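Regression test case RT-17, inverse folding.

Input:
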């Protein structure tokens, strides 16, 4: 281990006062990205990190080779049918990015395709490797083909700041059109005739707030909609039926949808139902009626129907249930599929319509009477719809995985109820799912609430064993039990991997989320600590490495302040650890919209005091802290790099224990490095650090 002295961040006291509380922030200067001292400090931290972890280089290389060796580098996705084509992606050994392809469709059965072998009449739509060139970062934000399959809209980002440049490609000639639009957001949608593309722009706070209409061959785009309320994001999409464009505006707790006949792109959007604070809803076109999924007087959401000429009048179809959170509705010509969550697991409910000739209301009522759920055998799993672009079909494409089952793609035959496995991701090197086992444990929180924990290990791993305990717990995001190739490098070294499904996530329904946000946010942190204590008390582990990213990085910082003695190490990736200062500044990206999640400390003294009591940066003290590895990216627009930089600086200045390490990727964004080999190396680095801390 190197004895080199870690960098010491200079202290430049910056005073701020809120609600009569004066705070001195010595490291606020690090937020100036253009200051040469900031860059120099981050580079010095990277140099120190390399010195402190140099002894892990052999292990890091070994883990990287394990990840690479288990991955079928030359591979392809299962083709998905859209109109006259089957679409799929290829990956090729030695290349960082996927290649999007298609072949003409002949019937409803996907073509048999072989990794590394091109099909007859195969067409390359977009080659990420060709587009990336020598750029150290590359990302595609939009890839949308016109309904007739003749034109592609695609957008690219070469910095990681999630500002994309939109271009158009004629798929019949291969020509890139002269039309080019800079600084757009993710997504976008074509009109039905493919003449017009709708896209969104962001404001200075990185909020998508404008929808523009671009007509191919023209230079002056038209502003279609602008959202003035800083709490709302906007987005636009085309229904599966290709009959309507849907323009949505939503905050964390409220939504509003506008619709437009997709054959009339220059027409005026009309509101389905005006926004009502606290009411969220989404619209899906089902032929001669609309589905509306909403939470009006229905905490876990309710599914309703509405006539085409009066979409704001909702008639209940699947009423609210306390034990079932409705997630989304997918409508097709002859059936619908509801994606739901119950008992901490996801599921699918099929609604087959009644006989042709009946009224639409009779058909849809018959569908609920005849509805059924698809069964899956494992105790833990995650399932959901996957790539169903065709409105008229007799098959449902779904994605399935568990902590021991690699990601799998099935077609569910609606007529026969047969599950047809199309592909399971290959895991090379002799992986056998029977060598591993998964469990569900329940920890008891300090208020008596039962906290689910998903666990996977090798069958021959005894107790106690070193453990990685992962957590997130915000935005109603669920960390469902899924498979990871990289995780095998831990499991095969005798580690146990567990996910604590803490409140603030969505695993147990909307109420689970509500009990872990705003002034109940501390439940997220205490749940995680209680989960760690449970894993120790029940003999699972004596050495726990905690890991989380983004809002899960806030969780890492908070639990380290609450109970540093519980953890042998902490990995915090792009961590939201300076939450109070960020949420106090409405000029920063995402701040105002976040007030519905965390509260508004700028205008509410009680929220200010509550947040100050848990935010990691504010609450570092002199106790011994475990070793901490913080990983961030200079161009991150969601959690700015200075948050972990300030946190590590304060830990070094105040806390004992450690060491405290900061790794800044100088050319990437929120998701880290973009190429798959680069991403594998980054994961191998983190895993090598975890292995050392878990076994030393």
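Golden output:
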């Amino acid at each position: 281990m190197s004895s080199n002295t870690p960098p010491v961040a200079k202290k430049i006291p910056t005073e701020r006062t809120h609600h009569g509380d004066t705070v001195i922030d010595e490291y606020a200067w690090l937020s100036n990205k253009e200051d040469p001292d900031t860059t120099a400090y981050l580079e010095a931290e990277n140099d120190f990190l390399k010195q402190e972890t140099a002894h892990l280089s052999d292990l890091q290389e070994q883990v990287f080779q394990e990840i690479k060796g288990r991955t079928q580098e030359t591979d392809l996705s299962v083709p998905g049918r859209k109109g006259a084509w089957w679409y799929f992606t290829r990956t090729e050994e030695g290349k960082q990015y996927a290649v999007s392809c298609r072949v003409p469709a002949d019937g409803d059965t996907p073509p048999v395709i072989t990794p590394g072998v091109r099909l007859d009449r195969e067409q390359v739509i977009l080659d990420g490797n060709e587009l990336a060139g020598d750029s150290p970062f590359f990302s595609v934000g939009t890839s949308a083909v016109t309904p007739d399959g003749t034109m592609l809209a695609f957008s690219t980002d070469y910095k990681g700041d999630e500002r994309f440049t939109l271009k158009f490609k004629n798929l019949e000639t291969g020509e890139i059109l002269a039309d080019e639009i800079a600084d757009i957001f993710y997504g976008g949608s074509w009109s039905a005739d493919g003449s017009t593309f709708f896209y969104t722009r962001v404001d200075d706070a990185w909020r998508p707030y404008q929808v523009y209409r671009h007509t191919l061959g023209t230079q002056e785009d038209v502003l279609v909609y602008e959202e003035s309320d800083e709490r709302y994001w906007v987005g636009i999409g085309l229904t599966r039926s290709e009959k309507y464009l849907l323009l949505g505006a939503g905050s964390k707790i409220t939504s509003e949808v506008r619709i437009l006949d997709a054959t009339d792109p220059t027409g005026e959007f009309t509101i389905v139902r005006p926004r009502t604070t606290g009411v969220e809803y989404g619209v899906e076109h089902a032929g001669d009626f609309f589905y509306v999924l909403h939470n009006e007087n229905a905490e876990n959401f309710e599914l309703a129907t509405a006539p085409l000429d009066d979409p704001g009048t909702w008639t209940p179809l699947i009423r609210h249930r306390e034990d079932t959170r409705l997630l989304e509705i997918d409508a097709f010509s002859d059936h619908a599929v509801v994606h739901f969550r119950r008992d901490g697991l996801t599921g699918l409910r099929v609604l087959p319509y009644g006989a042709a000739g009946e009224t639409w209301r009779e058909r849809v009522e018959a569908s609920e009477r005849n509805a059924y759920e698809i069964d899956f055998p494992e105790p833990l799993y995650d399932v959901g719809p996957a790539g169903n672009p065709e409105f008229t079909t007799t098959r449902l494409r779904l994605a399935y995985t568990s902590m021991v089952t690699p990601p799998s793609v099935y077609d569910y035959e609606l007529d026969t109820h047969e599950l047809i496995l199309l592909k399971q991701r290959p895991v090379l090197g002799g992986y056998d799912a029977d060598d591993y086992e998964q469990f569900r444990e329940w920890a008891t929180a300090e208020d008596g609430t039962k906290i689910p924990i998903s666990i996977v290990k090798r069958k021959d791993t005894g107790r106690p064993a070193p453990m990685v305990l992962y957590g997130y717990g915000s935005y109603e995001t669920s960390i469902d039990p899924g498979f990871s190739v990289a995780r095998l490098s831990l499991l095969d070294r005798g580690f146990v991997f567990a996910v604590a499904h803490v409140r603030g996530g969505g695993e147990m329904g909307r109420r689970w989320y509500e009990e872990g946000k705003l002034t109940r946010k501390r439940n997220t942190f205490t749940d995680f600590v209680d989960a760690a204590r449970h894993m120790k008390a029940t003999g699972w582990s004596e050495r726990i490495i905690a890991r989380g990213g983004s809002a899960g990085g806030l969780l890492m910082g908070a639990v380290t302040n609450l109970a540093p003695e519980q953890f042998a190490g902490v990995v915090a990736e792009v961590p939201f650890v300076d939450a109070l200062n960020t949420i106090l500044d409405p000029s920063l990206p995402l701040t105002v919209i976040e007030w519905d999640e965390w509260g508004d400390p700028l205008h509410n003294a009680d929220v200010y005091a509550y947040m100050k009591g848990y935010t990691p940066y504010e609450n570092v003290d002199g106790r011994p802290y475990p070793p901490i590895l913080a990983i961030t990216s200079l161009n991150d627009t969601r959690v700015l790099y200075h948050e972990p930089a300030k946190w590590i600086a304060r830990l070094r200045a105040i806390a004992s224990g450690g060491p405290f390490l900061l790794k800044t990727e100088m050319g990437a964004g929120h998701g880290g490095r973009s190429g798959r080999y680069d991403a594998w190396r980054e994961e191998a680095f983190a895993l090598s650090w975890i292995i050392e801390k878990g076994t030393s």
